[in-house]
Amino acid sequence: MKLLLDENLSFRLVRVLQPYFPDTKHVKEIGLSGAEDLIIWDYARSHGFTIVSKDADFHQMVLLKGGPPKVIWIQQGNCTTDSIAELIVGNRSALQSLMESEETVFLALR
């Protein structure tokens, strides 16, 4: 499962998530810091990533455009990087179901 972490998530999440999701990247790692959402969207689609973001814009894009890419929307306000990592890792089965589904393109995590 290839996760692409949006800029609004800490790049430190990559290290924490690697044991569970080895193909995780942060937009900063691939030269997309500050890029418009559509550019990140196109990159994720072209390279087989699922976008992980706290930004509602990607949720709106997936509703309008459909997938790919798939989108995971982290719906937590101010919180620690560790709590976001726990949320993602703790929902591995839901993420796996998202990846295996041909119809489902969006997952909200609270």
How would you characterize the overall build of this protein?
This protein has five helices and five strands, in the order βαβαβαβααβ. The chain has 110 residues and is of the alpha/beta class. The protein has one domain (3-109). It has a five-stranded parallel β-sheet, with helices on both faces. The model has no long low-confidence stretch (mean pLDDT 96).
Summary keywords:
5 helices, alpha/beta, globular, single chain, five-stranded parallel β-sheet
Biggest beta sheet attributes: 5 strands, parallel
Helical content class: 40-55%
- Quaternary class: single chain
Q: Could you tell me the mean pLDDT?
A: 96
Strand order of the largest sheet: 2-1-3-4-5
What is the helix tally?
Answer: 5
Low-confidence stretches: none
* Structural class label: alpha/beta
Tally of domains = 1
Question: Which series of helices and strands comes N to C?
Answer: EHEHEHEHHE
Percentage beta strand: 15-25%
Distance between the termini: 20 Å
Question: Could you write a compact summary of the structure shown?
Answer:
By secondary structure, the chain is an alpha/beta fold. It contains five helices and five strands. It has one domain.
Helix and strand layout, with pairings?
Elements: E1 3-5, H1 13-17, E2 25-26, H2 37-47, E3 50-53, H3 56-65, E4 71-74, H4 81-90, H5 92-100, E5 106-109
Parallel strand pairs: 1-2, 1-3, 3-4, 4-5
